[in-house]
Design brief:
By secondary structure, this protein is of the alpha+beta class. It has helices at residues 37-42, 89-100, 122-126, 152-160, and strands spanning 16-21, 44-46, 54-64, 70-75, 79-82, 85-88, 138-141, 146-149. The termini are far apart.
Length: 165
């Protein structure tokens, strides 16, 4: 925020959070919120463009080019983007927990070469390189239709582009 407490617009090439100005008198810009008041308050920012206004926080991180075109870059929070879909890590954790009979399961997005995914955490720095982690790694083999263990040979083929996910 600037010295007046307002949000600072991003410059071309700079990632920023997509927000939508709320105007309760405009049916296209109104926001009635969620059933949960706490969920609603997490999605609204105040004094964004001018003192006293409100804006909806989309959770989408975009980058604008010099011509004003916007490009999706990432999601904020515990989600990752895969094949054009936002995937909830919590939802995947729940499914894996039931399938594997494990109480504690951690799911996180990793940078896959060619996807331009922003790396954010230590786990993402490890990526899916089997030499960098002691975790068991799996990948979805689309030809066979099920998950297979990820070993160094498959990892090398994925990174070289010889094998696609």
């Amino acid at each position: 925020r600037d010295a007046q407490g307002l949000c600072i617009p991003c410059q071309a090439g700079e990632p920023g959070l997509l927000v939508g100005q709320i105007n309760q008198q405009d049916p296209l810009r109104r926001f009635d919120g969620y059933v949960s008041e706490s969920a609603t308050s997490k999605k609204i920012a105040h004094s964004v463009f001018s003192k006293g206004d409100s804006a909806y926080l989309s959770g989408d991180v975009l980058v604008m080019d010099e011509l004003g075109y916007m490009y999706f870059r990432d999601r904020s929070g515990d989600t990752f983007r895969w094949r054009g879909e936002n995937v909830s890590t919590t939802e995947v954790e729940g499914v894996l927990s039931r399938l594997l009979g494990q109480t504690d399961v951690a799911v996180y997005g990793v940078a896959v070469p060619g996807t331009f995914k922003i790396q954010k955490t230590r786990l993402q720095r490890e990526g899916f390189d089997p030499r960098q982690t002691s975790d068991r790694l799996f990948f979805l083999d689309l030809k066979q239709g099920h998950y297979l263990p990820l070993n160094e040979a498959v990892y090398t083929r994925i990174c070289s582009g010889a094998f696609s996910l």
